[in-house]
């Protein structure tokens, strides 16, 4: 009985720690969605991205009140907002497939949309064939490689 009680306490404690660790991201997502609804006319959201480079950007993907599929990119500092039509550039799936097609990736870990040097980019984080962590930034507009960081 004592072993079961200890196991229950450990599992519950682990779940509480996990929940608390995700709280800042959930709060940022809720704020970004609210902001996108108010200032960019977002009606339905389909995805959320958190982009950290020299600055932090929150991106909400979804449909606006005109029925257009858009990305709303919000700067953490200053609240500067960029609204992009999803059809004006490459998709998240295309950015991931670019890494795979260049035979650099053994596994894509995540893909985020943000702003780098005043241009929208997809950041693809992946493990290369040697198991090393890598990042590649692709221009949203045309999928060209903007920056690569290899073998971290």
Commentary on this structure:
Residues 32-74 form the Cell wall elongation regulator TseB-like domain. It comes from Liquorilactobacillus satsumensis DSM 16230 = JCM 12392. This is Cell wall elongation regulator TseB-like domain-containing protein. Pfam families: TseB. InterPro entries: Cystatin_sf, TseB-like_dom. This protein is α+β, with helices and mostly antiparallel strands and 152 residues long. The protein has two domains: 2-88, Nuclear Transport Factor 2, Chain: A, CATH 3.10.450; 92-149, Nuclear Transport Factor 2, Chain: A (Roll). It is built from two helices and eight strands, in the order αββββαββββ. It has helices at residues 2-40, 92-101, and strands at residues 42-52, 56-64, 69-75, 81-85, 105-116, 119-128, 133-139, 145-149. Strands 1-2-3-4 form a four-stranded antiparallel β-sheet, with helices on one face. The protein has a four-stranded antiparallel β-sheet with strand order 5-6-7-8, covered by helices on one side. The longest helix is centred in the first third of the chain and has 39 residues, at 2-40. The radius of gyration is 18 Å and the shape is globular. The N and C termini lie far apart (46 Å). The mean pLDDT is 87.
């Amino acid at each position: 009985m004592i072993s079961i009680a200890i196991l229950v306490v450990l599992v519950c404690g682990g779940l509480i720690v996990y929940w608390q660790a995700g709280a800042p991201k959930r709060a940022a997502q809720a704020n970004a969605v609210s902001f996108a609804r108010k200032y960019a006319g977002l009606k339905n959201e389909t995805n959320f991205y958190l982009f950290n480079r020299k600055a932090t950007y929150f991106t909400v993907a979804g449909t606006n009140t005109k029925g257009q599929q858009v990305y709303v990119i919000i700067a953490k500092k200053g609240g500067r907002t960029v609204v992009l039509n999803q059809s004006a550039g490459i998709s998240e799936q295309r950015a991931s497939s670019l890494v795979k097609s260049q035979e650099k990736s053994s596994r894509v870990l995540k893909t985020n949309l943000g702003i780098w040097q005043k241009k929208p980019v997809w950041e693809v984080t992946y493990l290369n064939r040697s198991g090393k962590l890598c990042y590649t930034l692709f221009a949203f507009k045309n999928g060209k490689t903007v920056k690569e960081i290899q073998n971290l």
